[in-house]
Design goal:
CATH superfamily of the largest domain in chain A: Vaccinia Virus protein VP39
Largest interface: A-B, 42 and 43 residues
Largest sheet of chain A: 7 strands, mixed
Strand content of chain A: 25-35%
Structural class of chain A: alpha/beta
Oligomer: homotetramer
Distance between the termini of chain A: 47 Å
Strand order of the largest sheet of chain A: 8-7-6-9-10-12-11
Number of strands of chain A: 12
Low-confidence stretches of chain A: none
Shape of chain A: globular
């Protein structure tokens, strides 16, 4: 049967893939949640009709959202994940025996529930004893935290819908406050290629630069996201992802990874000239 | 009007973009040649229905196919381009005043003719006095060449149709022979992500490794190619793209580039673990 | 979410509609069975990926497959339905109190089971006491029947897959034998518009003409079938659908119908000239 | 090359066909005019992105828009065509030697010019000496006409854009005035199937009923229009399309037609019950 899912990357470009089965469809108070089984990418989680996670390439995203910070500061012990309901970010974090506490704040319990059913690959470690799940608004959650985390990962959707507040100055300020002295913030930071995504990235990066002394952007190849050229932000109170990078210490964790490695750590921060210039110029 | 071009990246994944106008459609003795004008990517050259060049992101491809070799050996004087009928590779090469001779061998004169009309942006330097155009088979062309070039760029289509012979051991051997002692071969080398593309890359890389002492693969973000994760091969008789990299010398050329820079030169060779492992394992 | 079902009407024309939810997907020993919920057409039954029944326009198909024969011979008492697993044809037949017996022979029990769940609108009368369901091969079923039915309705899929045998001369001969003197055969007879459908129609019609003295074709507007121009065959031992048409007697049944009426009965046999000529010429 | 044209029949249903070549694209003061060459339907005229005429099935439309009126009143001598820039309606009219005068009023000269180039099949008779072309607004054109035409054919686009005024009460009143005693108005009257089209049809029919004593609607199978179930309106001062139908006289014209014939003339007025009820109920 010719059943195809289509995501509009822009008004004029769209990506489609063939669906085996529409597994799940539910409207939560926050968003539309769907799971589809596909021929090319395995099971796929969609929020409000946009691809969030696919079985085929989630390893890229989850490698890059966790290991870059961990290799910059291998002493991270307390981690806060905001969003990330599929569990992939937590799964990667639990691989570090040195991490003592992982708080995950996901506004939409339905995403977690459904991911446990349809994406056991990503959600498998949500029951690790170091993990505490909070089903509440991440924005509120960080408001009264002070010096509680060594790493905050904002594993959010796009800055439209429930993810919107996670791209605000106020939220970033509260994250700053919630972080310890060597604290690092890693945030899902859109893409430099299509105009709308680039604007969102520039806005978020501009706001972070007003708050954190160190703000960098790093890239990776994410084939199922628009343009395949995706970015995370790295903001820190004191650690620089390249100058303070500790490849030898990270290697001692002896983790087998499919995308991340210590060369790609450095390569990811080597941005194309047009992206560097765009960030320097900021949003007009 | 809803007129959309679709490229099937695999049997189960396709990329579509909206067409303003179908500008040109002609069948040459070698392939179907089309130009379309699009809303998102400007003018696009299609060969046998596949995206070759778009106005929006050709700069990425052409930066990466030329500057990496030039920054490894800034003394390159004689260059052979095989394929590359749109002219973008030649355009980048002509920016180096130190290059004395550029031979471009394109089997399909129609591609050059039509690109001159519809893609002046890429084809603008084909009349540079150092450039000689040969409309003949690149495979034959290199057969009797010996020690004639410092750099050969294989700017080919996929290994199906007219591009097929440019992925053979015999051709690579003749390239080796045609190169000088410090000679470099750069070849369009598909993608690691989708299965068919990955196999083509592994086959080409395996063949090159039997001929050249130094063979590496480097990557870049090419949003209009399947998966957006694209590769070039770098093979050389004696120069290593990282160990022999001469960033300071390259900077003296004082070229303004939109994608390439000396950090990305290094970053491009930092491959994801799964790609490195795939190349080490070779084709089964 | 942009989830679209597509049916290829020909290699070069396709019809797509937006899917709310993929309700059901199962492979029976005979075919792939799917139900989808759609925005425009309500629930839709697909067999091997082709639209069979939609909530929005099934009334057209089921009106035309039953009432034309019933208004030609209002004394029909014994009916055999071959195929028709969704139950819509039986539903219309049960509205005639004068019909005493309805045998329905559907090769694929799964279609009936799933239709009971997802298409209660069509399957509602399958439990009428006059109805006997046989889950077996209709071709075999009629082999040993003689003078048992006043009406046989071949409510089949296209002549590819499980429906193929229902378009053969042997099957039509057995139907002839199974029918009473005034017996009528009504068969799903494809479309005159697209080449492949027209050929199937011409082949079936040609075969019927060699067996039955009276063979006509009638048309109706079926928007969700390829071209919207669909045909049924009417073959009979002695009754002509126009000459023996009994509008006044049919009106006495006092049935409320949404598509069929006594004017459309006549109009349906008024074929376009190109269709008449095509049938006269037969298959080349 | 996979180049596909798509027409959205509704927000949730779309029809696509494969394009060989985009032949022509021009914006007139009134609308966007495109010609495409397609694999399934030959050359196609698009206005504002909607299918108007295809080489494959234009014969259906043009047969039905002319011959029904001509067979009701074979004495028609003076005809006004409003719209119909492709020339197909005029072509059919010129086949009647008894017609003395054909005025065609097309607001958009570009449509005629381009149709002459790309659709010689339909535009071939625009130079017949009985034909006078007026490139002006049909609404204005009829304002001051009195008793000048025996037949007015409104061969318009949908009631959106330049066609809008051709669906107004005032326009219909002026047509009434412009017609002779036995005058007939035939108008493009949308479709009963999809909601938006049905509403447009009901509005137009309701307006005509307030002006003309005889108003009927007739149908035909038009595969490239939404749902394939299309309608024309027939309004007249005194002639009824069935009661006054003169099949024998029409046959004397000895015209070979591919769709229309004297049985289909009658059959076309046999509407499905749901359409009859819809028209009786009118627009809410």
């Amino acid at each position: 049967m010719e059943l195809w899912f289509t995501e509009e990357h822009t008004d004029y470009a769209k990506f489609s893939f063939k669906v085996k089965k529409h597994l799940y469809s539910e409207k939560s108070p926050f968003q539309q949640v769907d799971f589809i089984d596909t021929y090319e990418f395995g099971k796929v989680l969609l929020l409000d009709g946009l691809v969030m996670v696919t079985e085929k390439d989630e390893f890229i995203y989850h490698d890059m959202i966790t290991h870059v910070a961990m290799a910059t500061n291998p002493e991270i012990k307390r981690v806060l994940v905001i969003g990330g309901g599929d569990g992939g970010t937590v799964r990667e974090l639990t691989r570090y025996n040195t991490i003592e506490k992982i708080d995950m704040v996901e506004i939409d319990e339905l995403v977690v529930k459904a991911s446990r059913e349809f994406l056991p690959l990503t959600s498998s470690k949500l029951d690790d004893e170091r993990v505490t799940l909070y089903f509440e608004d991440g924005i509120k959650f960080v408001e009264d935290k002070e010096n509680e985390y060594d790493l905050i990962i904002v594993d959010s959707t796009d800055p439209i819908g429930p993810g919107e507040g996670l791209f605000t100055t106020e939220f970033y300020k509260n994250c700053y406050k919630a972080l310890s002295d060597k604290g690092i913030l890693v945030n899902q930071n859109e893409s430099p290629y299509y105009e709308r995504d680039a604007k969102a990235m520039l806005r978020a990066t501009g706001k972070l630069k007003k708050i954190f002394p160190i703000v960098e952007v790093y890239q990776f190849h994410m084939p199922t996201y628009p343009s395949g050229h995706w970015l995370f932000g790295f903001a820190s109170k004191s650690l620089h992802p390249i100058k303070d990078f500790k490849p030898e210490e990270w290697k001692k964790f002896n983790l087998k990874t499919k995308y991340y490695n210590t060369e790609i750590h450095v390569g990811a921060f080597a941005l194309p000239t047009y992206v560097k210039e765009m960030i320097e110029a900021g949003v007009k």
